[in-house]
Amino acid sequence: RRSKMVSMSFVDFLEGIGRIAVFKPLPTEEDYMELFKTSEGSVDVNDCAHFFDHIWSIGSEFALQRFNETHERDWRLDETDQGRPLHDSIQYVCQLLIGRLDRDGDGTISKGDWKYKTVTGAAEREEVRQ
Question: In the chain, how many H helices and how many E strands?
Answer without folding.
Answer: 8, 0
